[in-house]
Write a structure and sequence with these properties.
Strand content of chain A: 15-25%
Order of helices and strands of chain A: HEEEEHEHEEEHHHEHEHEHEEE
Oligomer: homodimer
Shape of chain A: globular
């Protein structure tokens, strides 16, 4: 985020009624003003004015972890959050599920000409609050503006860097037969909150009224994860089930690890109002995105301890064991779901897309 | 870039006639296939399948530098380059002008529904080639798809990480009175190449025909910069004059450093065909973007050595001394330009925006 300077003799931005203009992305005074009055005011940027940020050294035995995520969620404000908060927590969580301590974020903005400055300011404030909560600093950034009709209000792309201690390396490829499969809480809250917000936008309040109490679970998972490691729990696979929901995540883990998985439908926590809305809409909560939940695969012997650690944390109070690795009829990397009625079905990756732009 | 798996029993992507669909951003099998058959095939990703990349440690006395850049250039293919090459070199250069050795890139893609897979593959190949040229690895990424009409084909957001040796810290704030101001080559090539490409698109070949030979100067500057440091040249400010051109960069440096600057118009290198086109169009080449050029501020005594180092490098053969720091009528941080006719004018930041989406 270059061009941050103290400007003198320039009229302040009209943050009440002003709008983003192409000039705000042109690398001149107007861009410098936007950066100063909105981004630099909210974020703890390092080396503003330069093209990047110089960061402190990692610990001697720590390795760097990098993760990036583009956020295009629609609508940008939804029950329980907004695109700003999501852009911080989403990337913090990607770094944290690698086993690393999230430290720094870079944030790039692609703004559509005409986007209200009031919304931009509100979103920047939300990002700053989320960064404080996740204990990371937004250290550098970039702003681009595209013509009206060539974007959709605001896209935020964050890249996180974190420190991975020696000896920790959970990936999706470490699941072993007989391992336990756990989740940290209810599935589908974020996806249903977005659907509910879209229904409201489309004037469908009547039909979707019963889900209006569902809020996004967007939250930073670094502390919950740190507690699992601090308790000495051996973790074979760790993932946050975002896009594609639990269904995508468990299939990724089985594909990467070359194992099967058997899940118990009745054991998978789902909020009653999410379950009811899913039934009404004919969709499956296991394909709805989560933004503050974990899937943990660990040795059978560690499962109870892992559940206890999660349940003692505000973000894991509904943690549950939902299945087991490798207990399938053959060795193909498939996920089987034992239904409430005792039948078995394949929980495949979703092949349709009921909900684009969920994050 | 999660969800990278070896897929079996899936028909290969139609890279000749296929198009990006919403399902390619949904976190399921189609997204995994897109990542496998396009991105993972071209890039040296680390830990594909996981949510981020674990990177090797930096050297003992090295600090981490991070820089991020969203690329929205239009058109995406232009004389001398494309959005993919630009997305690599742009961020490599942001890291390099901080004095750091660029090492790794994260790449996020925001694709518009309907974007041709053939173009995506061509762009990914161009990014891979650029990364090899810049000696960096594209280690992790993310893909999002937005509905037709909510984006513009492809936006690429890259974030770079690099290693900064102890003792090196050029910023825009280090310029001192009597320092020399140098550039590594001709100004405005990239901006004019984009203008020329847009004129072609708009069927204005006749009027703009004389600039059709101008190609973008997009290039990775890390090696040229490394040679300046290796030669022991004391550098007070280092910047690549991209958006807003030389005009924006010299004003940033004077603002950040709290000094004035006097430039000699006749000393600033501009290609004859760029100068002619600028005159025809009534624009100033000093506000046109560059993507492979440096502005260097160094002590007067080091200027000749710095010029010699630059001129010995393929990317610096037209390097020139263009002015001096601090020789202004007062102490305000202004840039004055002595014109060819001997007059003086203020080279302010551009206040209009002749050319949005230049990078």
């Amino acid at each position: 985020m270059n061009a941050h300077v103290r400007l003198s003799g320039v009229r302040p931005l009209d943050k009440a009624a002003g709008r983003v203009e192409l000039i705000h992305g042109a690398g001149g005074k107007a861009m410098a003003q936007l950066i100063e009055e909105i981004f630099a005011r909210h974020f703890q940027m390092i080396g503003t004015g330069d093209d990047g940020a110089v960061l402190p050294s990692l610990g001697l035995n720590e390795r760097l972890v990098m993760a990036t995520d583009a956020h295009v969620v629609s609508p940008i404000f939804f029950p329980g959050g907004d695109i700003g908060m999501l852009s911080v927590f989403g990337t913090v969580n990607d770094v944290a599920v690698m086993g690393a301590r999230p430290l720094w974020l870079a944030a790039a903005f692609i703004l559509e000409e005409g986007f209200p400055l009031a919304d931009l300011d509100r979103i920047a404030a939300s990002m700053a609050k989320a960064a404080r909560e996740a204990n990371v600093a937004i250290v550098t950034g970039d702003t681009k503006v595209v013509e009206k009709g060539k974007g959709d209000g605001i896209f935020i792309i964050t890249t996180g860097a974190g420190a991975l201690p020696e000896g920790i390396a959970p990936t999706g490829a470490g699941a072993k037969p007989n391992d336990a499969v756990l989740v940290s809480g209810t599935m589908g809250d974020h996806g249903m909150a977005i659907m509910s917000a879209r229904a409201d936008m489309n004037g469908l309040e009547a039909g979707m009224g019963f889900v209006s109490s569902v809020v996004s679970d967007a939250a930073p998972l670094h502390d919950l994860i740190a507690r699992l490691f601090a308790a000495g729990i051996e973790i074979h696979a760790l993932r946050d089930p975002t896009r594609g929901g639990l269904g995508a995540t468990v299939n990724e883990i089985t594909f990467q690890s070359g194992v099967g998985m058997l899940l118990e439908e009745a054991a998978i926590p789902v909020l009653p109002e999410v379950a009811a809305a899913c039934e009404f809409l004919g969709i499956d909560p296991f394909y709805l995105a989560n933004e503050g939940k974990l899937v943990v695969v660990c040795p059978e012997a560690a499962a109870d301890a892992a559940l206890a650690v999660m349940r003692a944390h505000p973000l894991g109070k509904n943690a549950a064991r939902i299945g087991t690795i490798g207990i399938v009829s053959d060795t193909r990397p498939l996920v089987e779901l034992r239904t409430r009625l005792g039948g078995r079905l394949i929980l495949d990756w979703l092949s349709g897309d009921p909900l684009p732009r969920i994050c």
